[in-house]
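YkgJ family cysteine cluster protein: structure, please.
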Amino acid sequence: MDCRLGCGACCIAPSITSPIPGMPDGKPAGERCIQLNDDNLCKLFGDPSRPKVCSDFTATIDVCSTSNEQALWLITDLESSTC
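Here you go.
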């Protein structure tokens, strides 16, 4: 499956503990990444400064489902069950 452009759930729902440009301590779960633009597109996509955890993420139907809203819910649920 390919990422849905403009979804952004993987840049909002999970916590990211590695440094992100503009967020040196990463980000907590539920906080919008500073590198996500107004159209929910990553400003660092393809840039070497993009965190490895972000570039390693692969969209799958069981995590991203069929809509942006479902993806946000699923990833939020996964995040809360792993804390």
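Notes: The CA atoms of residues 8 and 40 lie 5 Å apart.
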